[in-house]
Amino acid sequence: GINVTASHNPAEYNGYKVYWEDGAQITPPHDVNIMDAVLAITDYADVKTMDKDEAVKAGLYVQIGKDVDDKYIAALKKQVKHQDAIDAVQKDIKIVYTPLHGTGNIPVRRVLKELGFENVYVVKEQELPDGDFPTVSYPNPESEEAFELAVKLGNEIGADILLATDPDD
């Protein structure tokens, strides 16, 4: 699989991440083998292309849907080690979440809901995907500055947890 992304960087840094059949980013030797194949191309006219309809018919293009989403959510929920701890606080704990204008909004909120968290507040200004990141100069969840709006909302509602995801997660 290929994910075209600049992650939390400006759009001019767009590139792509390559994933292997196990769903993880490629590692040696696959990375080297793929680059060797790319570098072996000396004339782009030699690159084989295919119409989308033809690729679909050949089984080479598959658009993923709810079945993949459901499996992904189930896999995330399996990572929980102490559901009993969640059960003890899920009605009381307040979580502020920001997807930082990225793709995490739907899956993160779904997982939190399915785990039983009832008080999840989303930073509305950063809820929808927007590659221009209009509310933050550097949307990296490792950066304190990326949390400014989450902190503001957290203070307003008395949040226990502030949570942000990288825009391409």
TrEMBL record:
What's a GO biological-process term for it?
purine ribonucleoside salvage
Metal-binding in keyword set: yes
Cofactor(s) demanded:
Mg(2+)
Domain Alpha-D-phosphohexomutase alpha/beta/alpha intervals: 1-43, 70-168
Which of UniProt's keywords are assigned here? Isomerase, Magnesium, Metal-binding
InterPro entries linked to this entry: A-D-PHexomutase_a/b/a-I, A-D-PHexomutase_a/b/a-I/II/III, A-D-PHexomutase_a/b/a-II, A-D-PHexomutase_CS
Give yes or no: UniProt keyword Nucleus: no
Record-level Gene Ontology MF annotations: magnesium ion binding; phosphopentomutase activity
Q: Which family does it belong to?
A: Belongs to the phosphohexose mutase family.
**Designated name of the protein:** Phosphoglucomutase/phosphomannomutase family protein
Which organism is the protein's source?
Answer: human gut metagenome
